[in-house]
């Protein structure tokens, strides 16, 4: 099996590729290679000497050959010379490396600092003459190419080498899920510490103004997003909306539209949503409807939002008649699941997100269920104060990645919920009814947990699954601290709301159930007395 570097570092001369790359490798316990040092070892002379004797074309040929060999046989951190990515053969090699899951990191230093370091360092044939002027002219040519070649940007402005190395380490350890498919503009879901720092690169250079839509409880995270946006040169319009489902109303949406109108937002401006699932749903709906669609990025701050609401392109608001009845299918430019935001979550809000995680395990990925079982006690006892320094962080990152992959599998071939995507609604038919009857005092993940037990009971009553699988639903969800029964509402109220559910067809009830773990089927209009009996079984 071929080894590949954990990361390949590119950047301008003086950006600190060698120093920061070496420190990152030490932090991660990995070997480090510098392409220029390896070339000098190979040719038996310094690079300036080689340039003088053989010229730049010969040097670039030696360089591209060494880079290809190293990228296909080295498993540490690999730093390239400043001009290497300008060679077509190197760009081709790096594109192949990225396609196989590699990370090409563009290390972006303050130009003044980089120029000074490059000048001080000496021994750079490309800076012969007026070094600062040459650096600037090279930067103008190289920067667009580097941005195009790299799939990760690391800004080191104002950071010490040790701080820059920690930032690079976070970026290397970050997980990414690529979302693509019919009717979808491709985008990535990035999962890890400091994922939010990708904001400027996702918004691009066209947008001048950004509406930052967020709720009050996530103020510290919206402050961080605002600082990143201003650093990136954007004018930021701050829009605070009510928390949770109270923020997903026509009145709130109308207030946001009015504000965008007053601020003169155009098609080239952008939206960033920071918060839980309700906030990202609203931000996406605003982005989809303003000027018939503007660019937007989701920054989910709860586990539920990271695994569910922020990914998949469904945006929407609630009406008095039901949840998410008004909305649009509209994909973001990217989703940034920065797990540092989870550290501010109370235990109960973290735990409710496990409902959607478990759902993804039941409908497709049994490994999710195994991880949940293994770590149930630690997940149930989640403590934000210790989360980022605990082994639980990597467990949660893996659960988020796997759950997002399940969602992407169902969404990529079915953006508009005609078939496969409906399977993501396992547990949701009753879950949505519970939320409605409880006036959204019940959290979504908790309602879905009860809804899954109901769906399992219904499937068992109709002979699709055995009793053991129903009991497994109850034991696993209970071990995670999720509810498995509900005592509110009457059967007639629940039945009326289930008839109004999006999955109903005309007056026919329609349910998503399992016939085994990892395999979902539709139930079309099952006998009313059986549905009522399944409901009776989830009563306390």
Automatic annotation (TrEMBL):
Keywords: Amino-acid biosynthesis, Aromatic amino acid biosynthesis, ATP-binding, Cobalt, Cytoplasm, Kinase, Lyase, Magnesium, Metal-binding, Multifunctional enzyme, NAD, Nucleotide-binding, Transferase, Zinc
Ligand binding (ATP): 14-19, 124
Record-listed Mg(2+) binding positions: 18
Ranges of residues in domain 3-dehydroquinate synthase C-terminal: 353-504
Reactions it catalyzes: shikimate + ATP = 3-phosphoshikimate + ADP + H(+); 7-phospho-2-dehydro-3-deoxy-D-arabino-heptonate = 3-dehydroquinate + phosphate
Gene Ontology CC: cytoplasm
UniProt: NAD(+) binding residues: 243-248, 277-281, 301-302, 314, 323
Domain called 3-dehydroquinate synthase N-terminal: residue spans: 239-350
GO MF term (any one): ATP binding
Chief location: cytoplasm
One Pfam entry name: SKI
UniProt key word Kinase: yes
CC cofactor note: Binds 1 Mg(2+) ion per subunit. Binds 1 divalent metal cation per subunit. Can use either Co(2+) or Zn(2+).
Binding-site residues, Zn(2+): 356, 428, 444
Subcellular location, record wording: Cytoplasm
InterPro entries, per the entry: Dehydroquinate_synthase, DHQ_synth_AroB, DHQS/DOIS_N, DHQS_C, P-loop_NTPase, Shikimate/glucono_kinase, Shikimate_kinase/TSH1
Pathway named in the protein's UniProt entry: Metabolic intermediate biosynthesis; chorismate biosynthesis; chorismate from D-erythrose 4-phosphate and phosphoenolpyruvate: step 2/7; Metabolic intermediate biosynthesis; chorismate biosynthesis; chorismate from D-erythrose 4-phosphate and phosphoenolpyruvate: step 5/7
GO terms under biological process: amino acid biosynthetic process; aromatic amino acid family biosynthetic process; chorismate biosynthetic process
Cited Gene3D superfamilies: 3.40.50.1970, Dehydroquinate synthase-like - alpha domain, P-loop containing nucleotide triphosphate hydrolases
Record flagged with keyword Lyase: yes
Family stated for the protein in its record: Belongs to the sugar phosphate cyclases superfamily. Dehydroquinate synthase family.
Function of the protein: Catalyzes the specific phosphorylation of the 3-hydroxyl group of shikimic acid using ATP as a cosubstrate.
Quaternary organization: Monomer.
HAMAP family, per the entry: DHQ_synthase, Shikimate_kinase
Protein name: Multifunctional fusion protein
Organism: Bifidobacterium pullorum subsp. gallinarum
Lineage of the organism: Bacteria, Bacillati, Actinomycetota, Actinomycetes, Bifidobacteriales
């Amino acid at each position: 099996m071929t080894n590949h570097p954990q990361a390949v570092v590119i950047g301008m001369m003086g950006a600190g590729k060698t120093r920061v790359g070496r420190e990152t490798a030490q932090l991660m316990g990995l070997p480090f290679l510098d392409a220029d040092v390896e070339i000098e070892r190979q040719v038996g002379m310094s690079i300036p000497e080689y340039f003088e004797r053989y010229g730049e074309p010969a040097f670039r040929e030696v360089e591209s050959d060494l880079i290809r060999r190293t990228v296909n046989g080295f498993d540490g951190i690999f730093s390239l010379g400043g001009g290497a990515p300008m060679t077509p053969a190197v760009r081709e090699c790096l594109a192949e490396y990225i396609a196989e899951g590699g990370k090409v990191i563009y290390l972006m230093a303050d130009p003044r600092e980089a120029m000074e370091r490059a000048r001080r360092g000496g021994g750079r044939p490309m800076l012969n003459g007026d070094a600062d002027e040459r650096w600037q002219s090279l930067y103008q040519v190289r920067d667009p190419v580097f941005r195009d070649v790299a799939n990760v940007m690391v800004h080191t402005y104002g950071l010490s080498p040790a701080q820059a190395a920690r930032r690079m380490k976070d970026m290397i350890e970050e997980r990414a899920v690529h979302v693509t498919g019919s009717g979808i503009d491709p985008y990535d879901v990035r999962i890890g510490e400091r994922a939010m720092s990708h904001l400027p690169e996702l918004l691009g250079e066209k947008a001048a103004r950004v509406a930052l839509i967020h709720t009050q409880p996530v103020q510290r995270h919206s402050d961080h997003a605002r600082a990143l946006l201003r650093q990136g040169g954007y004018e930021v319009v701050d829009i605070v909306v009510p928390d949770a489902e109270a923020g997903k109303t026509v009145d709130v949406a109308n207030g946001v539209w009015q504000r965008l109108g007053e601020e003169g937002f155009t098609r080239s401006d952008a939206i960033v949503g920071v918060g839980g699932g309700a906030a990202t749903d609203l931000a996406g709906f605003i982005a989809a409807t303003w000027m018939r669609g503007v660019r937007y990025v989701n920054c989910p701050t709860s586990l539920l939002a990271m695994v569910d609401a922020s990914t998949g392109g469904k945006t929407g608001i609630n009406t008095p008649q039901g949840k998410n009845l008004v909305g649009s299918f509209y994909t973001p430019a990217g989703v940034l699941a920065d797990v540092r935001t989870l550290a501010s979550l109370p235990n109960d809000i973290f735990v409710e997100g496990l409902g959607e995680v478990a759902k993804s395990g039941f409908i497709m990925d049994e490994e999710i269920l195994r991880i949940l079982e293994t770590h149930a006690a630690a997940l149930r006892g989640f403590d934000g104060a210790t989360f980022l320094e605990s082994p639980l962080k990597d467990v949660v990152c893996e659960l988020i990645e796997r759950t997002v992959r399940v969602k992407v599998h169902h969404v990529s071939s079915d953006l508009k919920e005609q078939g496969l995507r409906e399977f993501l609604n396992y547990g949701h038919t009753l879950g949505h009814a519970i939320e409605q009857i409880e006036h959204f005092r019940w959290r979504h993940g908790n309602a879905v947990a009860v809804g899954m037990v109901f769906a399992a009971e219904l499937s068992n009553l109709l002979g699709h699954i055995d009793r053991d699988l129903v009991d497994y639903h109850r034991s696993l969800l209970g071990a995670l601290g999720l509810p498995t029964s509900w005592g509110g509402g009457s059967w007639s109220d629940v039945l009326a709301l289930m008839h109004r559910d999006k999955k109903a067809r005309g007056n026919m009830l329609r349910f998503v159930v399992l016939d085994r773990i990892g395999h979902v089927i539709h139930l079309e209009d099952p006998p009313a007395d059986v549905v009522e009996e399944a409901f009776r079984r989830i009563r306390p």
